[in-house]
């Protein structure tokens, strides 16, 4: 390093900084001061009057002979801190940084890292060390650090240099213009608006089946499947396309002109006669809303039938107006009666056949199921993480007049689309854990829309209970429910958007050395949209996976695809399997069903606890991810049909597990975590975060299982340290504190 310093001195570099200092003193910091080398050319040799501050060039010894005393003044951390504080406090510096594209947040973050670099004392760029020395001896001003600082900031935020191009790429102000095929199709849009069970989807589906070429876009795999099945049962050709499954009615796998798909899979490159977009109010969904926006604006069909809540009409109308389109409204009334009862259920002994108890967490669901079984009921259960096959089996059992199972316990997973023979809906609670777009969780009242959707499941047209009833478990909730059910749902205000693979690719072209995670952060920050109509969907899961696979050698497209995989990032089993798959992919290795079996230790044992059941559900998700990837990378994920068979086997194991939920609940988890933990952690009456452990669990930063393992480990450490304490009493306080942190 001294050799370089001395070289710089030999070529007269030092006066450059003196010049900078004097320039900035006259006029504040100016552009030239940001470019030391440029300025160096202008002022070299003109500042001899400052030479007294330095040794003359001829005095500079060669590196080998250089005495230590010739090095720049060695600065203490305190001195460096003072210089940097003076520097960053200057309004001119902040203004100049802003002119250069460094906003307040980036300025702060870059400065924190810059200061860390300066204080680290090692590997400081030579120029930086010299400027700092010059400032210290009065030969330069703090302003003169600006060039060094900006060079450093550009390395951290390379997008600053090509901000204009990037801003153009992530300009999301006119999404309607992204779909020229749809714009050219001369679309007629019909909105079938009505409450649940009003026949709106039924009428739209009639058009779907009559048309020559048509597409149905549903909110759930299960619903896409149901439409596919019903269409095929009528002898009409139809394909199925969900994220993880493609089924062709043609034996040679040639696509036909009709397809039932999940909304994310809506095909935008074909022109259809009729397209159906179901549950359109979902375009406000924080995670998935983008898929409805995309389908609504992008599907190329002569007739687009949109089904959903009337509350969504204004937003749909406004979105379509941006494409120069209008919408025809067809309103529907509920086909069957729905009565709100005048009293709450009060006790589970009042449950009758045809009742469905709705809870908003698995803890309540399992507890109530156990109590009902103890009362002699045969119970069907439905909750979100249950695989679709198992859900359908539970629905079938419940709907079957001959089957002794005639009571259901469900989470709000029944709120959308399922046709069930429910006589009465009983709300166990009106509160639900809500995950905000920043990932924070809190206990909130359910929305009017959710209450209406769920209550609407009672008294289904064409079932044995055409007159529906609804009530609550507890008296205290009944009035609130009545007021919710007599209200109109809150109109969705904005529709979701999401960066496309093409946009990310163009970003990566401009920022070749930037990680996908940073690309997304920059995208989020620079993106512009019409805030009165749109919001950027929550991409935390995408960013999480992007960070995890950052070190793998994957092409950008593959990286993007892995990050889009349908993964619950709180599920450690699924996340670790996705990472393994990404690693194998990066090594170009084929992943067979046998490979997968080895990874997950297939086949699993029969579940003996709720924790085992949860693991089985995770395995099901792993299969889903494999199949999802097999559609996108068929060359490396070659055995989806074998994996599908494994999935069917797993469905059966899970269904059998559901049949003996009470037994499973009585057993401790396979990892030693008793089921009781659920009850303690999520007890509604005491939901407020009481401990750090509670906060961590509620914020999703730690799972209950991991927490239990930690407790186990720490208890073990505690015991060990107590043993040690007997021989070394001084250590007792530390271990005690650590323990209390978790337990108090
Ligand atoms: N005209 C009809 N003839 C026969 N069956 C009908 C008719 N209209 C609706 N149905 C049946 O009634 C049930 C409810 O209809 P549909 O699913 O269309 O309601 P929806 O308004 O879309 O409700 P949700 O939003 O809850 O799905 C379905 O089983 C459907 O097949």
Automatic annotation (TrEMBL):
EC top class, as a word: hydrolase
Alphabetized UniProt keyword annotations: ATP-binding, Helicase, Hydrolase, Mitochondrion, Nucleotide-binding, Transit peptide
Any one Pfam family match given in the protein's UniProt record, by short name: Suv3_C_1
Organism superkingdom: Eukaryota
One function term, GO molecular function aspect: RNA helicase activity
Required cofactor names: Mg(2+); Mn(2+)
Name under which the protein is recorded: ATP-dependent RNA helicase SUV3 homolog, mitochondrial
The species this protein was found in: Megalurothrips usitatus (bean blossom thrips)
Upper taxonomic lineage: Eukaryota, Metazoa, Ecdysozoa, Arthropoda, Hexapoda
């Amino acid at each position: 390093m001294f050799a370089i310093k001395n070289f710089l001195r030999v070529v007269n570099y030092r006066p450059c900084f003196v010049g900078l200092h004097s320039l900035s003193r006259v006029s504040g910091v100016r552009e030239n001061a940001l470019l030391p080398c440029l300025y160096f050319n202008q002022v070299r040799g003109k500042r001899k009057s400052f030479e007294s501050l330095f040794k003359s060039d001829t005095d500079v010894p060669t590196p080998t002979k250089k005495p230590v005393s010739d090095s720049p003044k060695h600065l203490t951390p305190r001195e460096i801190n003072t210089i940097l504080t003076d520097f960053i406090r200057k309004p001119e510096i902040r203004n100049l940084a802003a002119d250069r594209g460094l906003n307040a947040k980036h300025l702060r973050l870059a400065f924190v890292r810059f200061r860390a670099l300066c204080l680290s004392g090692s590997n400081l760029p030579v120029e930086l060390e010299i400027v700092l020395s010059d400032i210290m001896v009065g030969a330069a001003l703090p302003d003169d650090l600006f060039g060094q600082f900006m060079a450093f900031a550009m390395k951290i935020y390379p997008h600053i240099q090509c901000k204009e191009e990037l801003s153009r790429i992530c300009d999301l102000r006119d999404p309607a213009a992204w779909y020229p095929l749809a714009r050219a199709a001369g679309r007629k849009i019909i909105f079938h608006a009505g409450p649940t069970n009003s026949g709106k989807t039924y009428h739209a589906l009639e058009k779907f089946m009559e048309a020559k070429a048509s597409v149905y876009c549903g909110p759930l795999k299960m619903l896409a499947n149901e439409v596919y099945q019903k269409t095929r049962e009528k002898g009409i050709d139809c394909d199925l396309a969900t994220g993880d499954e493609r089924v062709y009615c043609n034996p040679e796998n040639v696509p036909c002109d009709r397809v039932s798909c999940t909304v994310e899979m809506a095909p935008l490159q074909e022109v259809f006669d009729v397209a159906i977009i179901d549950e359109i109010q979902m375009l406000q969904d924080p995670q998935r809303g983008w898929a409805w926006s995309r389908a609504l604006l992008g599907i190329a069909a002569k007739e687009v039938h949109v089904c959903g809540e009337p509350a969504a009409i204004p937003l749909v109308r406004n979105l379509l107006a941006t494409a120069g389109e209008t919408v025809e409204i067809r309103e529907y009334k509920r086909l069957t009666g729905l009565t709100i009862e005048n009293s709450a259920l009060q006790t589970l002994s009042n449950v009758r056949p045809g009742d469905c108890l709705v809870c908003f967490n698995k803890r309540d669901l399992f507890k109530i199921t156990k109590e009902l079984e103890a009362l002699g009921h045969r119970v069907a259960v439905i909750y979100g993480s249950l695989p679709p096959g198992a859900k359908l089996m539970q629905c079938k059992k419940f709907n079957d007049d001959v089957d002794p199972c005639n009571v259901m316990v469900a989470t709000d997973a029944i709120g959308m689309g399922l046709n069930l023979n429910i006589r009465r809906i009983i709300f166990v609670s009106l509160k639900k854990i809500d995950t905000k777009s920043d990932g924070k969780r809190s206990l909130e009242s359910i929305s009017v829309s959710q209450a209406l959707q769920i209550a609407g499941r009672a008294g289904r047209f064409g079932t044995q209970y055409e007159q529906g009833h609804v009530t609550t478990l507890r008296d205290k909730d009944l009035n609130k429910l009545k007021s919710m059910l007599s209200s109109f749902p809150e109109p969705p205000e904005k529709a979701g958007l999401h960066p496309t693979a093409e946009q990310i690719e163009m970003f990566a072209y401009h920022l070749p050395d930037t990680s996908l995670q940073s690309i997304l952060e920059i995208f989020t920050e620079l993106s512009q949209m019409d805030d009165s109509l749109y919001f950027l969907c929550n991409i935390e899961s995408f960013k999480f996976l992007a960070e995890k696979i950052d070190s793998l050698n994957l092409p950008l497209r593959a990286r993007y695809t892995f990050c889009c995989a349908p993964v619950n990032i709180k599920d450690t089993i699924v996340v670790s399997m996705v990472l393994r798959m990404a690693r194998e992919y990066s090594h170009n290795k084929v992943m067979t069903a046998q490979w997968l079996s080895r990874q997950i230790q297939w086949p699993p044992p029969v579940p003996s606890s709720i924790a085992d059941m949860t693991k089985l559900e995770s395995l099901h998700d792993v299969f889903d991810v494999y199949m999802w990837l097999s559609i996108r990378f068929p060359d490396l994920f070659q055995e989806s049909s074998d994996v599908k068979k494994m999935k069917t086997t797993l469905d059966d194991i899970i269904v059998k597990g559901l049949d003996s939920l009470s037994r499973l609940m009585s057993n401790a988890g396979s990892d030693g975590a008793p089921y009781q933990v659920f009850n303690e952690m999520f007890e509604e009456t005491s939901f407020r975060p009481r401990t750090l452990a509670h906060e961590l669990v509620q914020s999703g930063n730690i799972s209950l299982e991991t927490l239990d393992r930690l407790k186990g480990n720490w208890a073990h450490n505690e015991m060990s340290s107590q043993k040690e304490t007997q021989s070394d009493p001084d250590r007792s306080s530390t271990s005690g504190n650590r323990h209390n942190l978790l337990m108090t």
